[in-house]
């Protein structure tokens, strides 16, 4: 069975969404092959005839799944014999906390790079993106990004728990990566795809951890245009 | 078997340490009774003839355990049939992340209330506390605490992942509390014991979660002087 992902893309086809990257890494972790369709922000509401508001939307057998966490849960249920994404209900609950932390970090990164993401979209998508993100971030993209040094410092402060934890173990999942790792790896990949700020500068422990993800899933991460 | 905890205390006997509270909640969760000895900062190096630098130090049968996380691991191993603290090795790994996040939040709270904690110690302990904490926090306790509103805002920002997560489930552990919950509950209890700043003001979701912990472990949390 090959999964199919509607995968958020910039005007030049670069795959953008942290959550889409997390989904692709989760599929690879479970040994499920996948294809992708580049999808623009304004095309999301038409996927599968409508009803979806965010990506990834993943077609997996008869299912159409509109959330990366739900996809990971389905994969874990379908393939309990393959490498774990959660390792039990306790792992699912705790991964919700990591996911909340990842969203918190993402919000801080967005303040710095939303203006750069906007520049990488076509005109129609720029209008949608600017309107929705300025509402979300509470100001003009240019104004929110004006204090770049302050914005980067806030991101680095929010990364401290990941940095501390990596002193003691190679992955958030312990000896092997879990879906929690893929959530954060998706965020790092997102910043690399946008490419305007290197948030891992001076972050050796986090860079080394991302290197360990790349060592396992390099083929997935190198497919930056699908 | 009754455990014995060397439990950090202020000059008037109030039990202070977030990690001691986490240890006591973990013992109660596993149905292990315990006694405590109030212990001052400067007495920690003499516990059990020396060798310990932090509390809690817990005597459990033939073991003397110098770390709350290690205690929780021992309890889980000894009582796999009782309510879970981690629910498997994946849960242990992910709880390390929550623990790192809890330490991150604690550091931000310490900036605001370390000066108040200092005031609650006797003269000898004040000297130790001031010297060690001013080195840790990078300035005079009074200076670090000067911008109280800014300090509280930084704490509330760092609590965002917990706040987001609690929209979806009653405990960090899911339907029941895990050691991850007790780590954060210890921090809340610490701020209540110091009693100078109400960090849960306007934090209904977190206050409700702490209320659920109190509903289960009220007797433990009410024993503020052991």
UniProtKB/TrEMBL annotation, chains A, B:
| One Pfam family of this chain | GST_C_7
Kindly list the residue ranges recorded as spanning the membrane.
none
According to the entry, every stretch annotated as the Glutathione S-transferase UstS-like C-terminal domain falls at: 97-199
Q: What InterPro entries has UniProt attached to this entry? A: Glutathione-S-Trfase_C_sf, Glutathione_S-Trfase_N, GST_UstS-like_C, Thioredoxin-like_sf
Entry-linked Gene3D superfamilies: 1.20.1050.10, Glutaredoxin
- Domain GST N-terminal, which positions? 15-82
What this protein is called in its record is Glutathione S-transferase
Instruction: State the organism named in the record.
Output: Hansschlegelia plantiphila
